[in-house]
Every structure is written in structure tokens, then in C-alpha cells.
Design a protein that fits this description.
This protein is α/β, with parallel strands linked by helices and 271 residues long. It has helices at residues 17-24, 32-44, 48-70, 88-95, 108-112, 136-146, 172-181, 200-212, 222-226, 258-261; strands at 74-78, 100-105, 125-130, 156-160, 188-194, 232-234, 240-241, 263-270. Helix 2 packs antiparallel against helix 8 and helix 3 (48-70) runs parallel beside helix 4 (88-95). The protein starts with 16 loop residues before the first helix and ends with a strand.
């Protein structure tokens, strides 16, 4: 865990995407300015509350599938966000108590609450590092220095609701390629990403809200999101709307519509 001061550079003068997400999830780790921005976004698309919940649900399901069906025992979760239980390590360690998890984020608020991410099983290990995904080489060096993950064994790279905050000038595809290149064969990429495919008008309005609040976003099409999985063996059911990826139970007719969620999800295995 980083030793830098927990309150470092905590900017409460403008909304932050992680704190807005916390509000959408019904959390308490946000400020009034984040709530106001989230409500403006929700005016453009009321389904954002459902999107946030389905994002978390996909992370839980993907973690279990990778542990149970693909033998994954290690995870690198980038863009961790404010801890919300159950966290990824709690899900992984409920399946394999020896699971090891490294969380990475560069948000001072996440650093403030990072102690919640340290509650590992006795058999496993968890830690938090402060790093920026826009500098993937430095991030991976910090992961190696933590000595929590064994780079000789498969590692699942978890990028949930992160890459739509990386706009084209930052070359998001190169970032993911560089992260994956550091991982051994048998590793996995589990990610989801907002898309305007199902309702372009609404999602363009959401993008405007985030961009105008100081957090640029770039929502991408199915074709563009699939590029993140180039060279990987994408497991069933492929890249699909988040709630349709290995649903936990049979459809009962009450599941949300794709346009309400607007979030594509997939898991790929590195050859």
C-alpha cells in the first residue's frame, strides 16, 4: 500500500467520475458537487443507476468464471474506484482463498479508503498501488515492485468502466496492448465499456455532461471496443451487453433493456 498522504490533492471543487459512480451505486463516499453532476447525467439518462449496478455485477461474475473455469489465481484491477463491498478480492477469495489481488488507481479519494482493500484472507494477499493507467510501463513496474503477483503465472487484467475515460489522444489501444504484453500466456482481460450503439442521442448527452464537468469521455462502438481484445481468445458469449454476459440466473422477463445499460462487456484469454 502506498505511503503517500491520504488527503493529497483531494479536489472537491468539481465533480469526479469515481465519486459520481459511488453515488449511482448508493454509496456515501461522494460530495454534494458529485451528486449534482450525477443527477444532471441521470436527467440525460436515468438508466445510469442500472448501468452502475450491472457494471459491478459483471465484475463479480467474470471474476468467478475466471477462477472456477480458467484457473486464474491472480488479478490486477486498474481504475479500482472507491471500494464497494464485495470488492474484487472478496469475490475471488470466496472461490479460491489463496487468490492474490493488486488494485491500482491514481485518485486521492481511493487512496483515502484503500485500507478497505487490504482485508485479505490469510491464504491470499491484496495490496493497493498508486499509479496512472496512462503510463502503463510505470504502472506495471509498480506492480512488480509490490511483489504480490507472480508474473510467471497467469494474471487477470480487470479494466471495468475505465477505458471510456481514456480518449484517443492517449492511445487507449496501445495502453491495453502494453499492459497485456507484460502478462504471461493464459492471462486474461476482463473489461466493460460504455457504448452509444443502442441509443446514440442519449449517450451523447451523457458524454457532454461528463466532459463539461471536467472529465472527458469517449464512448465507443461494438467494433471499436472489440479492438481491445485483438489477439485474445474471447470466451463465450463474446462481447455483449453487460447483463447478458453469463447471467447469474435465468431471465425472468424483468431484466433491463440493452439501451438502458449501454455497457458492453467481454473476457479474453491471452494465448
Amino acid at each position: 500500500m502506498t505511503t503517500r498522504q491520504a488527503g493529497r490533492d483531494l479536489d472537491t471543487s468539481r465533480p469526479h467520475s469515481a465519486r459520481m459512480y459511488d453515488y449511482f451505486l448508493g454509496g456515501k463516499d461522494h460530495f454534494e458537487i458529485d451528486k449534482k453532476a450525477a443527477l444532471v447525467a441521470a436527467e440525460a439518462h436515468p438508466g445510469l443507476f442500472v448501468t452502475a449496478r450491472e457494471n459491478r455485477a459483471f465484475m463479480h461474475r467474470a471474476t468467478r468464471v475466471l477462477a472456477q473455469e480458467h484457473g486464474i489465481r491472480q488479478w490486477l484491477d486498474i481504475g479500482t474506484g472507491i471500494p464497494t463491498e464485495p470488492n474484487l478480492h472478496q469475490v475471488a477469495q470466496s472461490v479460491v482463498p489463496e487468490a492474490r489481488v493488486v488494485y491500482a488507481d491514481n485518485d486521492p479519494l481511493v487512496l483515502k479508503y484503500a485500507e478497505r482493500l487490504m482485508r485479505s484472507t490469510a491464504q491470499g494477499r491484496t495490496t493497493y498501488i498508486e499509479a496512472n493507467v496512462k503510463d502503463p510501463d510505470a504502472l506495471m513496474n509498480a506492480v512488480r515492485e509490490s511483489e504480490v503477483l507472480d508474473f510467471e503465472q497467469p494474471i487477470a487484467l480487470s479494466l471495468n468502466a475505465l477505458m471510456h475515460f481514456i480518449t484517443e489522444p492517449n492511445d487507449p489501444y496501445d495502453i491495453v496492448r502494453r499492459l497485456l504484453s507484460a502478462l504471461p500466456a493464459g492471462s486474461a482481460l476482463a473489461m466493460n465499456h460504455c457504448t452509444p450503439d443502442f441509443d446514440p442521442v442519449t449517450w451523447n448527452k451523457v458524454a457532454e455532461v461528463y466532459t463539461n464537468s471536467g472529465t472527458p469521455v469517449q464512448f465507443r462502438s461494438h467494433k471499436d471496443i472489440s479492438r481491445f481484445f485483438d489477439g485474445l481468445d474471447v470466451i463465450e458469449p463474446g462481447l455483449c451487453c453487460c447483463h447478458r454476459w453469463r447471467p447469474a440466473g435465468p431471465a425472468d422477463g424483468t431484466e433491463p433493456k440493452d439501451a438502458e445499460i449501454g455497457l458492453l462487456a467481454g473476457v479474453g484469454i491471452k494465448r
